[in-house]
Amino acid sequence: AVFRSQQSLKRYEQIFLEDNAIVVEQTAHDGRTRRSCVPLHGLRLESFIDPDYGLLRLTLLHRSSRVDIASDLSPHERSSFRTAFVS
Predict the structure, then answer these.
(1) 55 touches 48 (CB < 8 A)
(2) Are the CB atoms for 55 and 46 separated by under 8 Å?
């Protein structure tokens, strides 16, 4: 369990703007990268807030596509991230 836990710490995520789209690159512990492009026009940010635990999930929505972001952050960190992301 400890070895598996240490491997998961090598995951990371980059979010940036490119050509009127939000690009999300998520790299797993084994080095595999998933790249998602979500157009800015029609983009929505969905937040799932639990009254006891805080902000549990952030999802970028555009038509039929859904991309979860900031999933490795704590609820408090995710809330700060959401504020910065929206501004």
Answers:
(1) yes
(2) no
Mean pLDDT of the chain: 88
- How far apart are alpha carbons 81 and 73 in whole angstroms? 9
Alpha carbon separation from 81 to 47, 49, 85, 87 (Å, rounded): 12, 14, 6, 10
Q: What is the chain's Cα-based Rg?
A: 14
Whether residue 56 is predicted with pLDDT greater than 70 in this model: the reply is yes
DSSP class of residue 42 equals: T
User: Would the pLDDT of 20 be above 70?
Assistant: yes
> Which of these, 72, 38, 41, 40, lies nearest to 58 by C-alpha position?
72
